[in-house]
């Protein structure tokens, strides 16, 4: 595994050096799964366009790799007439595609999202081996069950929720489309008397509608369904939505299908021979196009909608609404999704608000300051925690902009809430040794520290008087304690 990881690092550096810029970093991430070369501005651009999954090795890449192996091996075996007529080359191709998918998972780092996509791909190919239909809700449920048995905590993760919600919507669209095609086929085979006048025009428009339904129209409709299925989980976990994702996702699929995956396979084969530079430039050409479109979409008004935190029970009803829409087969049962979604949306709108939040490590506190926004105080606050607090408050500022350092010294930090109360954060353990000050001296503090030793010189006269009173109280307490020990 260490040798494979070193090879991935070398390939990622080579791709980044050949392509260069953000396109090279994205190409390296798409091919090897390494995101080390990607800059923060590039991450913001693809995040606002709703195509952040372009730099992750997920279900789209895994499915395309398995499909390329499956179709390629099947066509290669079909070149022999004796093999094609006497042996089940379809099953052979499925077995070879399973081996190729496993190798691709190992070669790209075997991340959690990639492993889930691998489980689903292996189950679909195993269905081909057993002469069963591959894309069914039963196979999706089996893949979800395997993931939950191996990693029960994955059920609460955003990756699991987004992956299986999108695939469930796509499988539902596929099953509905197959049923509609069967009905159309039966309708065409059923003899009926049709007028001759205008028959050619009718057949032409039916062919156009069929092409749009199975081509660009089908891609847009599938993208709309997958986006709608994942919207509630995106809003719940990341507190933002990208309205222009219907533009970004088809572009992403185009780049992945035409440039990234074929280029990754061909480039990986030519890399040991040193003949791969033109392949990576070809991949970078497609990425340049999608980055241009992503920047244009990010500059449009309302490119990113920031949402506050949901009520904890809201996502449960939204998930039940999604399951009702994709699992049931009749319109009456699918209509059950409407009241469930309405309850979930009410919970999303009635999310809890907060005026103070403390990091799990205790090194940072988020306060709602008098201007109504959050400010983060701490000696060295975690920007990740600050970003999560801002997202939960529907605040689109960068985490560094919310950090407030004016009220900090070497002992701790002080801030004020929106109602004027003071909050003190003293993370140093040494400050908690000795006698605490009387409670009356902390009647305005939400987090009561210990004695403040050396207060800052800019404190008010009242604070200095409190400090002198505290030290007088402390000396008196020590004298009484010594007398008690001597007695």
UniProtKB/TrEMBL annotation:
Pfam families: Competence. The keyword Translocase does not apply. The keyword Calcium does not apply. Keywords: Cell membrane, Membrane, Transmembrane, Transmembrane helix. Residues 30-329 form the ComEC/Rec2-related protein domain. It is found in: Cell membrane. InterPro entries: ComEC_N (IPR004477), Competence_DNA_uptake (IPR052159). It comes from the Bacteria. The chain crosses the membrane at residues 51-72, 92-110, 155-174, 219-239, 251-271, 278-298, 310-328. It is a multi-pass membrane protein. PANTHER family: DNA INTERNALIZATION/COMPETENCE PROTEIN COMEC/REC2, RECOMBINATION PROTEIN 2. This is ComEC/Rec2 family competence protein.
